[in-house]
UniProtKB/TrEMBL annotation, chain A:
InterPro entries noted in UniProt: Cyt_c_oxase-like_su1_dom, Cyt_c_oxase-like_su1_sf, Cyt_C_Oxase_1, Cyt_c_Oxase_su1_BS, Cyt_c_oxidase_su1_bac
A GO term, aspect molecular function: cytochrome-c oxidase activity
Ranges where the Cytochrome oxidase subunit I profile domain occurs: 9-523
Organism: Natribacillus halophilus
Any Pfam family the entry gives: COX1
Signal peptide range in chain numbering: none
Protein name in the entry: Cytochrome c oxidase subunit 1
Compartmental location: Cell membrane
Reactions the enzyme catalyzes: 4 Fe(II)-[cytochrome c] + O2 + 8 H(+)(in) = 4 Fe(III)-[cytochrome c] + 2 H2O + 4 H(+)(out)
Pathway assignment: Energy metabolism; oxidative phosphorylation
Membrane topology: Multi-pass membrane protein
CC terms in the record's Gene Ontology section: plasma membrane
Keywords per UniProt: Cell membrane, Copper, Electron transport, Heme, Iron, Membrane, Metal-binding, Respiratory chain, Translocase, Transmembrane, Transmembrane helix, Transport
From TrEMBL, chain B:
Matches recorded under InterPro entries: Cyt_c_oxidase_su4_prok
Region Disordered, annotated ranges: 1-20
Protein name (database record): Cytochrome c oxidase subunit 4
Subcellular location: Cell membrane
Organism: Natribacillus halophilus
Length: 623, 114
């Protein structure tokens, strides 16, 4: 944990965390909140897998099933995986580029609170007439005011608010990486995790804006009687699908690029080699990021756009496989001939590669427009994206967790428990999802809450559910591991417990509030490794030791977000029978939000300084 | 250090060279502004006069809009200046990415098939 010893200002613990603008603490807030949503969404998955364990089960009703799959998808993508990525980006990126914090610490805190309160708003739906039930894609007309219940309003406003949070964090990361690099840290010396963070943030800026527009249109349709998506009144439902997938396909790359970056950090560290083909890796992610905007129609092959449009998008989709293939080979060549250490982090990272390939192969299969008419809306698609999301992204997250845990919390996770978890998770994952390819091919439709006996689906569904149980057990073991390690594990006192290569390992453990007492001078790609070979193992400073300027904490990000939360609830309550008028809620929310913004603009706050003596004292204590 | 940040300076610390640059910049801004008002009036006239055929007016005002956009971005938002490589590349990639989206939202909404 970023221990109290690393704080120079004394505050109560609660107030400290509510007002923090320190990127390392915001990272931990993101990690906690993301994990909570991850557990919630995972629990739902286990429950609806139980519903599917046998034909014609009546464990949960069809309505509950629909609510669960919708919330599962929405939570996992927007409120679990993205925040967990933001946790690692927040913690690692400033350290990797040699900065004292992100470019806009206040905005960083604002991003977190917007995400968290938006997620909370979405979750409130359980207590007000049921969760959204139109799938994470929320297609109209199913989600229109005529057919969709009040749950959809929670979906629209909850995602709108948490989407703002994601958007401002994305902007913050772009500015940080472009402007805050230490001397010598040129773009082509950026670690790959920073590159993928930069590109993910760019994708967020370009993709979350169409989503915000689409959600706003849906909100107008549902709450203010507009007719953008109502065919009878001159609207068009296909527009929603376009807008959603213009956002949606870049979104899947928003999710996978950071995982690429994590793998590209872990594999070189435990192969004791520099990343093979660094330059081609950078260009591959650039091309992937660009192409991801040119393929959205592959989700709409069956809508009936016409053969020419379908062919163009089929081909553009397949081209993504080329840069992806380059990356796969580069990871393999990084391991080739390296001095491999297979600890938990590395084994998660290494097993990412083959499972991701399987997901990519089914992706190319799905991209063949004529055949997609067979696959579309079956379990084959479910298997495809879970191979990428679980077999790729979640494995990447686990690798990153085990790898950066000692820097974040000051002790390692237990390796034995880690290995047990890995095997349970890996076997469980393949049991659950491999068989779903075949289920899809024999014709099991996705998003349907039960199936009939004697159609050859019983055994396969049974196996799939057993696999889901194994994954659940693996996650429980991870939690046990976290608690066990917190109590039993020896504290890490060295800066660089893995003998790794990048700049974050040049900071002390625990990382002091100001990260680097003196901004380091970067002399090469993999700067820490370079100094170990060509220097004395310590980074050369780029500036004399001096007072360090720090941003002061603020409670305003919380209140700005709280106001939007209240106003969002107000908009939803047009469809609820509350004792209080929606207009009152909207007014209160508006006043809180804009009042806090006004306060922030009026305030003059230049932050504070940590004196040179304190820095020297802390440096001595930590080394 | 931080306390002084609020105080304003008594006289400008800019060199003559810098002042000349600022003046020139101001002149350019005003000229660009006048020109933009001019083409806006032109666009209104083209539509308002009701004399010109639609086949001419529509491409014509779209062209004017394009010129307007370039002036906006490069002169008003300073993309033409030095050290604007990053904003430039973001702006251009935004335009490149948005173009197919707009085209497809106009053409491909499933009524006519391609
Ligand atoms: C080689 C790269 C990829 C190709 C060629 C590809 C292709 C496709 C195609 C054609 C579909 C539509 C299937 C259908 O609905 O009939 C699809 C669905 C999907 N893909 Fe991929 N994909 C690729 C990579 C990814 C990645 C990296 C992710 C996630 C990080 C991903 C996540 C998804 C999701 C979530 C869906 C289903 C969306 C839904 O209908 O709910 N794909 N993919
Ligand atoms: Cu896609």
């Amino acid at each position: 944990m970023v221990s109290e010893a690393t704080n120079t200002l004394k505050k109560s613990v609660f107030w400290d965390w509510m007002t923090t603008v320190d990127h390392k603490k915001i990272a931990i807030l993101y990690l906690l909140a993301g994990t909570l949503f991850f557990l919630k969404a995972g629990l739902m998955a286990v429950i609806f897998r139980i519903q599917l364990i046998a034909p014609e089960m009546e464990f949960i009703s069809g309505q509950t099933f629909n609510e669960f799959i919708t919330m599962h998808g929405t939570l996992m993508l927007f409120l679990a995986v993205t925040p967990i990525f933001f946790a690692f980006m927040n913690f690692v990126v400033p350290l990797q580029i040699g900065a004292r914090d992100v470019a806009f610490p206040f905005v960083n805190a604002l991003g977190f609170w917007l995400f968290f309160l938006g997620g909370l708003l979405l979750s409130l739906s359980w207590f007000f007439g049921g969760a959204p039930d139109a799938g994470w894609t929320s297609y109209v007309p199913l989600a229109s005011r005529e057919f969709g219940g009040v749950g959809i309003d929670f979906y629209v406003l909850g995602l709108q608010i948490s989407g703002f949070g994601t958007l401002v964090s994305g902007i913050n990361f772009i500015v940080t990486i472009i402007n805050m690099r230490a001397p010598g840290m040129t773009m082509m010396r950026l670690p790959l995790f920073c590159w993928t963070t930069l590109l993910t943030s760019i994708l967020i800026v370009f993709a979350f804006t169409p989503l915000a527009a689409g959600l706003a249109l849906l909100m107008l349709d549902r709450i203010f009687d507009a007719q953008f998506f109502i065919p009878g009144e001159g609207g068009n439902v296909v527009i929603w699908q376009h807008i959603f997938w213009i956002f949606g396909h870049p979104e899947v790359y928003i999710l996978v690029l950071p995982a690429f970056g994590m793998i590209s950090e872990v594999i070189p560290a435990f192969s004791k080699k520099r990343l093979f083909g660094y330059t081609s890796m950078v260009f591959a992610v650039l091309i992937i990021a660009f192409l991801s905007f040119m393929v959205w129609m592959h989700h709409m092959f069956t809508v009936g756009i016409g053969p020419i449009a379908n062919s163009i998008f089929a081909i553009s989709t397949m081209t993504i496989a080329v840069p992806t293939g380059i990356k796969i080979f580069n990871w393999l060549f990084t391991m080739w001939g390296g001095k491999l250490t297979f600890n938990t982090a590395m084994i998660f990272a290494a097993s990412f590669v083959p499972t991701f390939v399987l997901g990519g192969v089914t992706g190319v299969m799905l991209a063949m427009a004529p055949v997609d008419h067979l696959y579309h809306d079956t379990y084959f698609v479910v298997a495809h994206f879970h191979y990428i999301i679980v077999g790729g992204i979640v494995l990447g997250i686990f690798a990153a967790l085990f790898y950066w845990y000692p820097k974040m919390f000051g002790h390692k996770l237990n390796e034995t428990l880690g290995m047990i978890m890995f095997w349970l998770f890996y076997i469980g994952f393949h049991l659950t999802f491999f068989i779903q390819h075949i289920l899809g091919l024999v014709g099991m439709p996705r998003r349907v809450y039960t199936y009939l006996e004697g159609q050859g689906m019983d055994t396969m569904n049974f196996i799939s559910t057993i696999g889901a149980f194994l994954m659940a057990v693996a996650v429980i073991i991870l939690i046990i591991n976290i608690v066990y390690s917190a109590l039993k594990s020896e504290p890490v006192t060295v800066d660089d417990p893995w003998d790794a290569r990048t700049l974050e390992w040049a900071t002390h453990t625990p990382v002091p509030e100001y990260n680097f007492a003196q901004t380091p001078q970067v002399r090469s790609l993999d700067p820490v490794f370079y100094e170990k070979i060509h220097g004395n193992g310590k980074m050369k400073p780029a500036e004399p030791l001096d007072d360090i300027h720090m941003p002061s904490g603020s409670i305003l990000p919380f209140f700005i977000s709280l106001g939007l939360f209240i106003a969002g609830f107000g908009f939803i309550s047009f469809h609820l029978d509350l004792f209080i008028s929606p207009y009152v809620l909207i007014a209160i929310g508006g006043i809180v939000t804009f009042g806090s913004m006004g306060l922030r603009s009026m305030q003059t706050d230049h932050g504070y300084h940590i004196s040179k003596e304190t820095v020297e004292e802390m440096e001595k204590e930590l080394s | 250090m931080a306390e002084n940040l609020d105080q304003s300076f008594e006289e400008s610390s800019m060199s003559n060279e810098e002042k000349r640059k600022i003046n020139r910049e101001q002149r350019i801004q005003i000229i660009a502004f006048a020109f933009m008002i001019g083409i806006t009036i032109l666009a209104f006239l083209a539509v308002g006069s009701e004399q010109l055929p639609g086949v001419f007016t529509i491409p014509f005002i779209l062209f004017l809009a394009f010129v307007q956009l370039i002036l906006q971005l490069y002169y008003f938002m300073h993309l033409k200046d030095k050290d604007h490589g990053w904003p430039n590349s973001f702006m251009i990639s935004g335009l490149v990415l948005a173009a197919p989206m707009v085209v497809s939202l106009i053409l491909l909404i499933g009524i006519v098939k391609y």
